[in-house]
Amino acid sequence: MAEQAKVAIVMGSQSDWPTMKHCADILEELEVAVDVRIVSAHRTPDRMYDFARAAEGEGIAVIVAGAGGAAHLPGMIAALTHLPVLGVPVQSRALSGQDSLLSIVQMPAGVPVGTLAIGEAGATNAGLLAASILAGSDAALTGRLKTWRQARSDAVAERPEE
Ligand code: RP5
């Protein structure tokens, strides 16, 4: 049987997947099971509501939500669940993701969304942050995270090559 997913990765559109795949990839590398879905605040509001309300009961511990433009998805999900929500601003065509960033980051006090950087770096870091949150109660995952970080440090040369 497949491992129960503790992290849900949701995104507003299929067009967000090339960005959000970076989140799924890092979590796969860290052996964290994920549940990936398209859930749009604007186009599928009922699906968004049902997902957010059911997530805790399905064993989800952290939600990563990516969206672009008028990016209401992370904030609306955060309004519907007490689970930690990490928001990834997807780089939009019109405003290069600045619209996405401001839509996600400016939450009112009391409804938090942990907002990451625009684009792929934000998606990767959302995955790492989700893993760090889970690692608090998972010693094996803590070990894998430390190994991953050490490998990144070891890969940095002392001096630049010609
Ligand atoms: C948002 O609108 C999505 O998150 C996506 O980033 C953006 C554009 O969506 P598409 O028109 O490409 O489906 O809801």
Q: Quote the average pLDDT.
A: 97
Pick out the low-confidence regions: none
Q: What is the count of structural domains?
A: 1
> What portion of residues belong to β-strands?
15-25%
Reported for the largest beta sheet, the result is: 5 strands, parallel
Q: How many helix segments?
A: 6
Q: Radius of gyration, rounded?
A: 16 Å
- Bin the helical content: 40-55%
Taken from the alpha-carbon principal axes, the silhouette is globular
| N-to-C order of helices and strands | EHEHEHEHEHH
The first-level CATH class name: Alpha Beta
Family: Belongs to the AIR carboxylase family. Class I subfamily.
EC number: 5.4.99.18
Keywords: Isomerase, Lyase, Purine biosynthesis
Catalytic activity: 5-carboxyamino-1-(5-phospho-D-ribosyl)imidazole + H(+) = 5-amino-1-(5-phospho-D-ribosyl)imidazole-4-carboxylate
